[in-house]
Structures are given as C-alpha cells and as structure tokens.
C-alpha cells in the first residue's frame, strides 16, 4: 500500500465472525436444517464448515458478491471424534465440545488453536462442562468428554469468559433441569447465541446478564424439541471498529453501513474524545466518522481494554495505530490477553514511538510513520498494520496477510473503495 491518502466513502460491514462461529457449532446440537444468512466469507468460517462436515453435517454455501448464506443439515450427525486438522486451526472449535456433548453425549477433540495473543487456557470450559456432569479425560493434546446424561447445575465462573460461557450454554440447552451461569460473559456474541438457540426451541433467559453477578439461566429441554431455523448473523462490531480507527488514523470521512451501533458505544466515545466527529443514523444502521481536520485529532490520557460493554481487546491494535497519528500521549492498558502488543515492534520499525511495560503501552503520537516491510503475526494486529501502512509515507507491505483473511472478508477491497492505494501481491 502507498500511504498518506485520506479515506473517503462508504463501506458495508460484513457479518460477525465471533457470532457466526458459535452459532455454527450450535447447529450441531440441533437435529435439523439451519439457514444462516449474512455469514462472513472468511477463512475461519471455512475451517468451521470443514469441521462440521467431518462430523457428518451437510453444509452448502450459496454466495452472492457481498453475502454468504450457509445451510447446515445435521440430521445425520453421528461422529463425535473431531479431526485435529480443523480443531487446532481455530479457537472456536472448543465450543463444539458443549454442542457435541448435548447432541451425542460424547466428544473427542484436541486442544484448540487460534491467534497467539497470550495464554489461552480452557480450564473454565472444562470446569463448566464437568459441573454439568461430563466426565473429561485429557492426555497430552487430546481431550475426551463423555456424559451419560447432562444435569443442570449452578456454575459460578471466577471471571467472565466468552468461549466458556458459550460452551456451557450449548451443553446446558438439553441438560436435565436448570443451569445457572454466574459471571457469564455479556458480549453480544454470547447473547446472539442465546437468541439463536431460543429460536431453535431452547429456553434461555439472559435478561440478567448485565446485573452485578451476570446471570444466564438455561432451562433444559428435550433434544427432540430443538428444530432448524433461519437466522441472520449480526454485523461485525470489531470489523466496524477497525475501519472507524482506520478513518481516525488516516483522516477523511467514512460512512459504515450495516453497523451494530449500540454495540459500539465505547468506541464512539473514544473516537469522539480523540477529536473526530461521529454521526449515527439508527434507522439506517450507519455510523460516519469525520476526521479530516487533523489539527483536532488528539490523544486522551488513558484507555484500558475490558469485557463488554467496555473497550474491546480486539480493537486495541487499531487504537494504537490511531494514537500514533494523533497529537499527544496515550497510555493503553491491556486487561484481557497477555501478549497483545505483538505489533508494537513492527510499528516501531515504521517510526512509531511506543514503550511497552508489561500490560501497558505508552504511545507518543504525532511522529511520521515510514513505509516498511512488516509482518502480520495475528488477525487484529495484522489489520492494524494495514492501517499503519495507509498512514505511512512511501510503500508498506504486510506479509502473512493470511492472518487478516481469518476475520476480514476483503480488507483490500474495502480500503480501495475508500480511495486507498492498496493491493494484494502475488494474487491474480
Ligand atoms: N481464560 C481462561 N480460561 C479459560 C478461558 C479463558 O483463563 O478457560 C482467559 C483468557 O486467557 C483471557 C480471558 O479469560 O485472558 C478472556 O478470554 P475469553 O474466553 O473471553 O476469550 P475467547 O472466548 O477465547 C473470544 C473471541 C476473541 C476475543 C475474546 C475477548 C472468539 C472466537 N474469540 O475469545 O476474539 O478477543 O473473546 O472478547 O469469539 C478475535 O476475534 O480476534 C479474537 C481473539
């Protein structure tokens, strides 16, 4: 990419990766045919479909230019041994445990993969499933879980985990009796899973998830009560946030269409405080970021990542790049993942002034970035490096952009539509 050009125009935001993945796992629990509209066309969805197929589901894809629809028919699912090839390709495969235990009473998997952004243990997942009556054996990288019958229980998580909450919900849907999850994660990707499952015949009450002890209550239903549904995947708040920080960093005026506005409160708040104009149109689900007046773009003293509805860890790297382009100093504390400053070294090579001390980075903005050959090491950091390249003088190349394709359908096409000079290398 050739940087230093303002971004102007409109982008339509894709469906949410982190909502679609557990919903695809949920399809395995439902003995029927589900239609998922608005799935993002990204590598991780491809891996998940392969995983479902390997367990006996029929998955068909119908593609339009901007939207992918998946039909998942799981009526003939019998296989509980999931192949390592797909399980280790992504983190989300771990929620297949809850779905398969609920459906078949048994699952053999190995430890999941996913972006290397710090310690990602699954102890809370296993704790929750064991509380529901699953017996779990781990040997090396392999995990076997078995449940004659899952029984409702009170599961009090020591802290909130998106994946562990989803896993327990999936297992509890057909457990006998009532399950209460305390300290449940309240991220939109969790509530979306509940809404999807309720449409398919489950009985989940998540109305108290924002109360102090964050409760989700699941009343178990017979497996035969679950049925296939048609469902539209919500749009991706993290992709939307990435492009909002892109506009803030590079300058210009960008309108995002198909945005989950209410889920972006903390992001809008920060971008406004950093001096850009934010306009929302709730009827059209659009947000406009106006950041053409560069004099007004300033850093605010301190931002920390935290669980929803606070500022999301997945947008911390795009924020760092925007902070490099703003005047003044920003201190960012990363509270969710231990190794989420992996792009700092690459940004420093581009001329950024960032000091990292443990879980805190201090960015001194207002320095020119210079185009360099940099390497993506994980999904969100990779997308942030693209933004950095769009702000830098000269040419930047981002290697290992496959990481970005795991979560962004077409980052190059999207930025090209906003007037950026950017292209894939070595691609037709
Ligand atoms: N944790 C444990 N034990 C567990 C599970 C989690 O200690 O058994 C810790 C993690 O190490 C982390 C914290 O709890 O420090 C929160 O992790 P969480 O389980 O909430 O995250 P996740 O389910 O693994 C999802 C998203 C991530 C997103 C986080 C936080 C998916 C597939 N992934 O991960 O998204 O950063 O929630 O919101 O939904 C991404 O899309 O780039 C991404 C990494």
Structure summarized in a few sentences:
This protein is α/β, with parallel strands linked by helices and 428 residues long. It has 14 helices and 21 strands.
Describe the overall structure.
It contains 14 helices and 21 strands. The protein has a four-stranded mixed beta sheet with strand order 1-13-15-14. A four-stranded mixed beta sheet has the order 3-4-2-12, covered by helices on one side. It has helices at residues 17-29, 43-54, 84-87, 96-104, 123-131, 162-172, 188-199, 237-250, 265-273, 316-325, 344-349, 379-391, 402-405, 411-417; strands spanning 7-12, 33-39, 58-63, 68-73, 106-110, 135-139, 142-146, 154-156, 178-182, 203-205, 216-219, 230-232, 252-257, 277-281, 286-290, 302-304, 329-333, 353-357, 360-364, 373-375, 397-399. The model has no long low-confidence stretch (mean pLDDT 95). It has 428 residues and is an alpha/beta fold. It is globular and about 65 Å long. A hairpin with a 2-residue loop joins strand 6 (135-139) and strand 7 (142-146). Uridine-diphosphate-2(N-acetylglucosaminyl) butyric acid binds next to helix 1, helix 5, helix 6 and helix 12.
């Amino acid at each position: 990419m050739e940087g230093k050009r303002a971004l102007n125009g409109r982008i339509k935001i894709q469906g949410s990766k982190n909502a679609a993945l557990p919903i695809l796992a949920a399809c395995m629990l439902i003995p029927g045919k589900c239609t998922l509209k608005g799935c993002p066309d990204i590598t991780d969805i491809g891996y998940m479909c392969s995983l479902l197929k390997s367990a006996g589901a029929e998955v068909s894809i119908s593609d339009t230019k901007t939207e992918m629809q998946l039909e998942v028919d799981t009526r003939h699912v019998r296989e509980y041994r999931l192949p390592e090839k797909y399980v280790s390709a992504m983190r989300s495969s771990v929620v297949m445990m809850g779905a398969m235990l609920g459906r078949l009473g048994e699952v053999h998997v190995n430890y999941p993969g996913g972006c290397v952004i710090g310690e990602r243990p699954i102890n809370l997942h296993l704790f929750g499933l064991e509380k529901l009556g699953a017996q779990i054996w781990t040997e090396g990288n392999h995990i076997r879980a078995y449940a004659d019958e899952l029984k409702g229980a009170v599961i009090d998580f020591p802290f909130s985990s998106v994946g562990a909450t989803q896993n327990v919900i999936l297992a509890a849907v057909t457990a006998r009796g009532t399950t209460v999850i305390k300290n449940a994660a309240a991220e939109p990707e969790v509530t979306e899973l509940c809404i999807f499952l309720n449409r398919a015949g489950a009985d989940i009450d998540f109305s108290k998830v924002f109360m102090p002890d964050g409760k989700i209550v699941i009343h178990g239903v017979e497996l035969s009560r679950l049925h296939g549904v048609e469902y539209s995947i919500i749009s991706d708040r993290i992709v939307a946030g990435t492009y909002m920080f892109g506009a803030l960093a590079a300058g210009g005026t960008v309108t995002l269409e198909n945005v989950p506005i209410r889920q972006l409160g903390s992001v809008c708040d920060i971008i406004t405080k950093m001096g850009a104009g934010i306009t929302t149109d709730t009827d059209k689900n659009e947000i406009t970021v106006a950041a053409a007046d560069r004099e007004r773009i300033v850093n605010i003293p301190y931002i920390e990542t935290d669980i929803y509805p606070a500022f999301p860890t997945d947008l911390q790297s795009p924020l760092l790049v925007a902070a490099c382009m703003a005047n003044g100093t920003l201190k960012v504390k990363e509270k969710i993942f231990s190794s989420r400053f992996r792009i700092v070294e690459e940004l420093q090579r581009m001329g950024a002034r960032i000091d990292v001390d443990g879980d805190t980075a201090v960015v001194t903005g207002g320095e020119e970035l210079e185009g360099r050959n940099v390497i993506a090491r994980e999904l969100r950091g990779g997308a942030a490096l693209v933004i950095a390249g769009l702000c830098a003088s000269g040419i930047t190349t981002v290697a290992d952009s496959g990481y970005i394709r795991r979560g962004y359908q077409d980052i190059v096409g999207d930025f090209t539509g906003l007037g950026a000079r950017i292209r894939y290398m070595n691609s037709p």
